[in-house]
């Protein structure tokens, strides 16, 4: 195979190759089921899919058959040939071939143009996307007997398609509309080389093993109860330890960075959200209001307006700024029930939120401090692979966001300078900014390479107008306040989901819900085991709640069984005690990774855990 000596593909070459693989798959399906009718088949992240109307319901065995046919066609080195046709001829041709969905697409193209098609079908590859008016001519790509409406470009020959694997079959309504027929969406993964494909498949397998929903249940971290409601996770004792320790970490870091902590209520009058702009625009993302004393109250979807009220409660002079207000704030947002997923997508969440109120001349420095705070957290948690994603508005369409473009440009420059000074990697994404200011998302990768968007930061220069946030300057006049919104540890919910995958549930000592378990070898050691347990329980370990998180396993089971159980619970230290340990006031320490540290005096073990916890060390 020629894959080995293939050079690294650029992102657009990769998408081109994946899109070509979609054609190859459709060509294979057409050979196997000549009556197949095709919807759309774009390239997507990690691969491609094609929506198809088939005379049979595909089974997993069919995927193997299709894959084999694809290989056969690939090795025939079929060229991708481009043909241009007037749109009416194209409609006639597709009609002749019985491709009803393509005829429908062509008619839509003819009447409304490609933007409408891209929007409705999720496929931007049909024709060039910027035609908002009707299209008069279209292009087709021919691969063997298979002909597809497509703007291209493609690889030259099927043999240039890299390594692929068909992954799964899902249902997808034609044109995303549930009133239409449900088609079969066949997904494939495709990469330039077999090594990359294998790496991706490994990552998927590993992600399954580390799935936070699975581990969250096995490790008693959270539970979702039908009687409480979907998307409203309940934190069990083990999960609450994770939250408490993370919150403590953020309290410490924020204190050092000059934040004050505040607390705000969960429900609020509608009026505040009209002021903030959440109402009426975001009403559908909020929970339905309740009426109290003839007034509408909402569950809060964001903490910002409340924090602004605290700022407004007192007058501020230039000397008071920056003012940094932090809260683990509980918010509620309505998500469609179909979109809910474990801790990743929830309806109620606690945000590691803060708002920094500052002068324009302080904004860059403050943003930089926020970036540095992120990198400290990431270093501590062994997150090495991350970058910032800077969302900027399209400068030509600035009036879409706000009618003061110069303020936008100022704010963007502040953020950009801070990013440059931070030395952290970033990318720029155009045309994506939130409407009240440039924003940065931190994208982090778990050790197995899954990317998560955890934290959003914004430089907000509009709050000053909406809320009248001002300070009195040295000149005695009122000046606008800049607000930085930040939440480095995101919501507890999403961040814990990330950490479960990242650590595969084997948390470092400072985070581990249970840090040690005492295991007597035989019944006659129970008394000493209890003494050890009590010493550790009361030991001076600076956890969120002082004292070691320790358990005693004196059940009538074999020692091996208890060790196995503790390993499954990913408890860092197993302390086995028998005659020798009882005599010497010691514990035999085994680590969850099977390493045997042998016997050590009890106070030495306490000192070891103390040190790990103080440093929040990843080592056991
Ligand atoms: Zn195509
Ligand atoms: Zn905010």
Automatic annotation (TrEMBL):
<keyword id="KW-0479">Metal-binding</keyword>
<comment type="subunit">
    <text>Homodimer.</text>
</comment>
<dbReference type="GO" id="GO:0006435">
    <property type="term" value="P:threonyl-tRNA aminoacylation"/>
</dbReference>
<dbReference type="GO" id="GO:0005737">
    <property type="term" value="C:cytoplasm"/>
</dbReference>
<dbReference type="Pfam" id="PF00587">
    <property type="entry name" value="tRNA-synt_2b"/>
</dbReference>
<dbReference type="InterPro" id="IPR002314">
    <property type="entry name" value="aa-tRNA-synt_IIb"/>
</dbReference>
<keyword id="KW-0030">Aminoacyl-tRNA synthetase</keyword>
<dbReference type="GO" id="GO:0004829">
    <property type="term" value="F:threonine-tRNA ligase activity"/>
</dbReference>
<keyword id="KW-0963">Cytoplasm</keyword>
<keyword id="KW-0547">Nucleotide-binding</keyword>
<feature type="domain" description="Aminoacyl-transfer RNA synthetases class-II family profile">
    <location>
        <begin position="253"/>
        <end position="508"/>
    </location>
</feature>
<dbReference type="InterPro" id="IPR033728">
    <property type="entry name" value="ThrRS_core"/>
</dbReference>
<dbReference type="InterPro" id="IPR045864">
    <property type="entry name" value="aa-tRNA-synth_II/BPL/LPL"/>
</dbReference>
<protein>
    <recommendedName>
        <fullName>Threonine--tRNA ligase</fullName>
        <ecNumber>6.1.1.3</ecNumber>
    </recommendedName>
</protein>
<comment type="similarity">
    <text>Belongs to the class-II aminoacyl-tRNA synthetase family.</text>
</comment>
<dbReference type="GO" id="GO:0000049">
    <property type="term" value="F:tRNA binding"/>
</dbReference>
<dbReference type="InterPro" id="IPR036621">
    <property type="entry name" value="Anticodon-bd_dom_sf"/>
</dbReference>
<keyword id="KW-0694">RNA-binding</keyword>
<dbReference type="GO" id="GO:0005524">
    <property type="term" value="F:ATP binding"/>
</dbReference>
<dbReference type="InterPro" id="IPR018163">
    <property type="entry name" value="Thr/Ala-tRNA-synth_IIc_edit"/>
</dbReference>
<keyword id="KW-0067">ATP-binding</keyword>
<keyword id="KW-0820">tRNA-binding</keyword>
<dbReference type="Pfam" id="PF07973">
    <property type="entry name" value="tRNA_SAD"/>
</dbReference>
<dbReference type="Pfam" id="PF03129">
    <property type="entry name" value="HGTP_anticodon"/>
</dbReference>
<keyword id="KW-0862">Zinc</keyword>
<dbReference type="GO" id="GO:0046872">
    <property type="term" value="F:metal ion binding"/>
</dbReference>
<dbReference type="InterPro" id="IPR002320">
    <property type="entry name" value="Thr-tRNA-ligase_IIa"/>
</dbReference>
<dbReference type="InterPro" id="IPR004154">
    <property type="entry name" value="Anticodon-bd"/>
</dbReference>
<feature type="binding site">
    <location>
        <position position="485"/>
    </location>
    <ligand>
        <name>Zn(2+)</name>
    </ligand>
</feature>
<keyword id="KW-0436">Ligase</keyword>
<dbReference type="InterPro" id="IPR006195">
    <property type="entry name" value="aa-tRNA-synth_II"/>
</dbReference>
<dbReference type="InterPro" id="IPR047246">
    <property type="entry name" value="ThrRS_anticodon"/>
</dbReference>
<feature type="binding site">
    <location>
        <position position="304"/>
    </location>
    <ligand>
        <name>Zn(2+)</name>
    </ligand>
</feature>
<dbReference type="InterPro" id="IPR012947">
    <property type="entry name" value="tRNA_SAD"/>
</dbReference>
<keyword id="KW-0648">Protein biosynthesis</keyword>
<feature type="binding site">
    <location>
        <position position="355"/>
    </location>
    <ligand>
        <name>Zn(2+)</name>
    </ligand>
</feature>
